[in-house]
Amino acid sequence: MRLKTKLVVAIVALVFLVVTALSLLYLNQLLQQRIDQSYSSADFVAHELLFATRTALETGLRNSTVNVDNPAELRAAVAKSLRNDVGLNALITSVINYSPDVLDLAIADRDGRGLVTAPDTALDKQLPVRPEYPTLHKQSFFQPLRVVFGKPQVYNVTLGLERDNQPFVTIRVGVRTTFLFNAYRPKLIDALTYVGIAILLSLIAAALVANLALQPLEQISSRLDALSHAEAEPAGELESGSSSDAVVQVSHKIERLGRRMRNVEEVFSALKENLDQILSNLQDGIMLFTRDSRAVLVSRSVERFLEVGRDQLLGAEVHDIFDRNTVLGRTVRQAFDAGMSIVQEEIVTEAGRRVELSLDFIHDDHPENSHASNQVADQGRSLGALLTLHDVESVSEIESELELSRRMAAIGRLTSGVGHEVKNPINAIVVHLELLRSKIGGEQSATRHLEVIQSEIHRLDRVVQTLVDFSRPVELQLQDQDMRSIVSSVLMLASAGLETYNVTMASELPGHPVMVKVDADLLKQALLNVVLNGAQAMPEGGELSVRLTEDGRMAILKVQDQGEGIPDDIRPRIFDLYFTTKRDGSGIGLAMTYRILQLHHGQLAVESKIGEGSTFTLCVPAANISDARMRGLLETNTSVVKGLRE
């Protein structure tokens, strides 16, 4: 069956169902209304007869000498009074002759025998038992239809008079269902006529709608042919989709185009993922703008320069991103407004940060349309602009970190060799020293010199053991940890030691988890070294501040003391092994901390001002860093893949 035929049949069926349902509802409402009218009319007649009967009995029995204790005599007197009352008989006659819904009337005694009937064929006879009209009036949706259109029936509307709280006389008004049907039939014919007209109109409308709906399909089919013309499908696939139905043809063509689009989408997704990975590893900020100056590509590093989330920058215009009140924003906006490129121009931000920026406008020098307007030709068909932000200071910091890493690696290789070469001679000296002690015996002066030699040898052994421990390789036990719990445990562990230095602690931790993937024991050791170093820098006491934040890529921990600060001439050497300015210091703590941060692909930096104190910043990659990126970091840091576990 063709789609057009199916569409016509579906529309006709839908219209038929709707019209039929509405018609049945309409017919039921009409029937209920007719039943209500008939019941009201019959009830009114019954009340009129009840009033006339009461009046006739009062008039007929007022002067009667009937014995009320004799039922037969009383019934005869009641029947005579009712049958001889002119008003009652006139009312009965008018109802029978002029009421369209009433079939018969009856006034019955307590035993159900007719005292007065119209027609009078049931006088003094037992009246038939009939259903009461209110039962029909209260029935559900389909029951009245079944009664009216089924076998003819007669329903009674009944009222009664009582004597001594006992039934005395009953008024019965009979209503035949045939009368209801005759009154209802014109409405039924009209409803059926409307249904037929609606179905006929639905056929015409369905045909028109089908033609209008399917008419554009041929145009769609021709356009799909034009789209797929560049890549011809195999002949077998085209023949398999051949059909006389235009909808089937269009469906097959759309399916083929859909397969092509899915293939292109897969390639695009792979390229986008690779591009995002490359951009996330770049230190320079890169922003790509469209011809209407909207950002469509933003690297993660841009957040460091603008202090705005990457998601807020995408889709925003240049004038919304850069503020004229800042040096960077003013420079970029002036270049965009003038349409002039910027070639590696260095600026200094309000915070004293040196930033080198480049702005290149991308033009299409070979427009496809030869009839392009002069304005477009003058603009060279601008496609957009590429903005690059380069942090000059970060390059210096990276070079310093690389130099320090090389020094640390060299120290590690040196200590490993020295520890191995020195350990064996020390062991031999200790053995021969014990032999010499046994040969000298109890000579006091020689024994004192031997004890000095033994003490110095033990001290030398501890130094060598420290070298061995510092260069011993162990594997990191990386697990997802909440940085807040690591900081809290270190602060609790160091609290007792801080009290001895008269140092108070002030910590500021975020209310949400800061997840990192680290070796918790090593990171606690590194943080404890920094905290104790800050406390020792305040011999007169003070406050040590610990603040934890995150920027989406790094968990950043700042430890700030109120000591004397670190002089500029020795600041580059504080992470060197065995370098210390303290009288009882070993020069190992900060070097070990730096090594631990390296193992976690983090950073350790220090800022210090003489007389104001120092701030150590520990940066650890967040736990959501991609596995591919972590593998790349591991490959670039193979020289420091091992570390020390306490």
Labels describing this entry:
single chain, 646 residues, alpha+beta, Beta-Lactamase, 5 domains, five-stranded antiparallel beta sheet, five-stranded mixed beta sheet, 16 strands, 55% helix, disordered C terminus
Can you lay out the helices and strands and say which pair or pack?
Elements: H1 3-61, H2 71-84, H3 86-98, E1 102-108, E2 114-118, H4 133-137, H5 142-149, E3 154-163, E4 166-176, H6 177-227, H7 235-240, H8 246-281, E5 285-290, E6 295-298, H9 302-306, H10 310-313, H11 318-321, H12 327-338, E7 342-348, E8 354-363, H13 374-379, E9 382-391, H14 392-440, H15 444-471, E10 479-482, H16 483-500, E11 503-508, E12 515-518, H17 520-536, E13 542-550, E14 554-560, H18 589-599, E15 603-609, E16 613-621, H19 627-636
Parallel strand pairs: 11-13
Antiparallel strand pairs: 1-2, 1-4, 3-4, 5-6, 5-9, 7-8, 8-9, 10-12, 13-14, 14-16, 15-16
Helix pairs in contact: 1-2, 1-3, 1-6, 6-8, 14-15, 16-17, 17-18
Q: What is the H level of CATH, i.e. the homologous superfamily of the largest domain? A: PAS domain
Q: Round the mean pLDDT to the nearest integer and report it.
A: 77
Biggest beta sheet attributes: 5 strands, antiparallel
Give the count of helical stretches. Answer: 19
